[in-house]
What we know:
Elements: E1 11-13, E2 21-23, E3 29-34, H1 40-58, E4 62-67, H2 71-80, E5 87-89, H3 94-98, H4 107-112, H5 116-126, E6 142-147, E7 150-156, H6 166-174
Parallel strand pairs: 3-4, 4-5
Antiparallel strand pairs: 1-2, 3-6, 6-7
Amino acid sequence: xxxxxxxxxxxxxxxxxxxxxxxxxxxxxxxxxxxxxxxxxxxxxxxxxxxxxxxxxxxxxxxxxxxxxxxxxxxxxxxxxxxxxxxxxxxxxxxxxxxxxxxxxxxxxxxxxxxxxxxxxxxxxxxxxxxxxxxxxxxxxxxxxxxxxxxxxxxxxxxxxxxxxxxxxxxxxxx
Length: 175
């Protein structure tokens, strides 16, 4: 697992749409690892990101999403749901492994965070329909704020329903 002050693992990837995402970069970057785009919880997380996109944009922070979904699913999903951030597909999960993102707690621990608010969010996201189900490892999300190749903030979720911690990411950037 990566910590504050660590050098961010280097990579350059082409998102489904838009310009390549590169680490390190001259622009601060919020890198969000999410599960399959067909997951209602992922859709709720992306809605949270969309809602806060302007807050990061004002600070000059580029937001990028990494998913273990296939490019075919993402090519339909991104325009359908008007995703503002570049979405990088990593079905082979190489970036997940490189950044130490995975299932860090037992299955019951992952489910522990699925409280009433998470379930409401998942139900809200279901109104958009459910995409093709992708049976992948039950991965937990993670977020990293990177500036000048260094990690300013790292958050590995301990459960599926855990909050993104976007306020903490903005606070770490302004500090």
